[in-house]
Amino acid sequence: MKNLSKLLVLLLALAMLAGCFAACDGGKTPEDTTADETAEDTTAGGTQSGENKEFVDYASTVKFDPNSGRASATVTVRTFVDGDTTHFNIDHPAFDGGILKARYLGINTPESTGQIEPWGKKASTYTKEALSKATSIIVESDSAQWNPDSTGDRYLVWVWYKTAEDTDYHCLNLEILQEGLAVSSKSSDTVYADICVTILNQAVNHKLHVHSKEKDPDFYYGAALPMTLKELKTNIESYKGKDVSFEGVVVRNSNQTAYVEEYDEETGLYFGIQIYYGFNLGFFGEEILSVGNRVLVVGSVQYYETGGTYQIADIKYHAMRPDDPENIQKISDGHEGAYAEVSAKDLLTGKVEIDVTSVDEEGNETVETKTFDRGFITMHGSASLKDLVITKIYTTQNEDSSNYGALSITCLAQDGTEVVLRTIVLKDADGKTITADKFPIGSVIDAKGVVDVYNGVYQLKVFSASDITFRQ
């Protein structure tokens, strides 16, 4: 009898233990559970589906605590990058250069720069619109120190903003997660771990944006549109967000960006564009974009907010599938940039008229003569300027920037036009940084480089000290 009692107690204990494991999903924490699993768990067992439940603004329940002991500072926006990355101006002793490159804590939005993913542009726009209307912005670390991310170049922060002085601060990280424009990223180790799980579950259950099966209306799902670089540049706005393919010669390659140009016989002009490939290509893909190669470019037309120009992004190369139609391709090698001579005045203010062919949705073609800036047409292609007199030099002083030591050389052309040569960080044969004293004021020089723009003014970007030669 006593043995039977012991057996019953043991069976009861095992039953209770099994129930505990079932309720806890085998010991799995919410952070270990995928978004799809979370949605299934919270709607199982005949309960009301998540999409029919009332939507709760959980993000607004979290308040900024100035006495938390965590590192924080008031900032202003310097540059919008994407949905979860923003560069801020900051006045804090921990940031000598006055710039904090912020990576938003707890979230990961779809890509919208080097790679283009569905809902990435919507997430980027959401962040930009929220902070653009802010009257005050605070960045807050998750601890008493400022913590860099895995790149070592960005800092992990919560971003708080308010739109009027008499309102509370809103946590933008949590709002983005709540909108379904991000997935949770390493949030379990943060001070807002619990609320992140609650917000993520709601977004999944309501099937919002990245958690839905709907197509992103701002994402181009079609095949790349074949065209010439001339057709692309003269209709660039109409191709924004679309995939295109065209041929051109690589004239420069620097900082994960290739500069490509193509000559047009009808106009006698070189059309240029920049290709931002980031870290997407791998060794063999990057080799295709080597200077002097003629290439087939396949990518997405995107507006580059920081540079204020259009570029091609989302470049791909699948080494195991060399004939993939989405791949960039090498056509031939041994080519050179034209570096056609242009006057400073023509570069800055010159105009050109070009017959532009456009096609409507029904396939009907129309031809219209349009006027373009000469600098815009050539931009990101090669050019050379001659007989320039150096009048002023500025050296980038921000030690936290990859441009530390780069030069802005202001020159005066023979016709009195002022033009700027903007260099990358120039190095001599020994790898030492070339400083401003190598370019004495009053010197007469020739220069070649890639046409660029800064604050709406065209300039020449120089990539090597040998591209600046002194007149005797």
Explain what this protein looks like in three dimensions.
The protein starts with a helix and ends with a strand. A hairpin with a 5-residue loop joins strand 19 and strand 20. Helix 2 crosses helix 5. It has 472 residues and is α+β, with helices and mostly antiparallel strands. The protein folds into three domains: 58-211, OB fold (Dihydrolipoamide Acetyltransferase, E2P) (Beta Barrel); 225-338, Nucleic acid-binding proteins (OB fold (Dihydrolipoamide Acetyltransferase, E2P)), CATH 2.40.50; 383-470, OB fold (Dihydrolipoamide Acetyltransferase, E2P), CATH 2.40.50.140. The longest helix is centred in the first third of the chain and has 22 residues, at 2-23. 33% of the residues are buried. Strands 9, 10, 11, 12, 13, 14 and 15 form a seven-stranded mixed sheet that branches. Strands 1-2-3-6-5 form a five-stranded mixed beta barrel. A five-stranded mixed beta barrel has the order 18-19-20-22-21. Mean pLDDT is 87; it is low at 1-49. It has helices at 2-23, 35-43, 120-132, 172-178, 193-205, 229-234, 282-288, 344-349, 374-378; strands at residues 72-82, 85-90, 99-104, 106-108, 136-140, 155-162, 170-171, 183-185, 225-226, 243-254, 257-264, 269-276, 294-304, 309-313, 329-332, 351-359, 365-373, 382-395, 407-412, 418-423, 444-454, 457-462, 468-470.
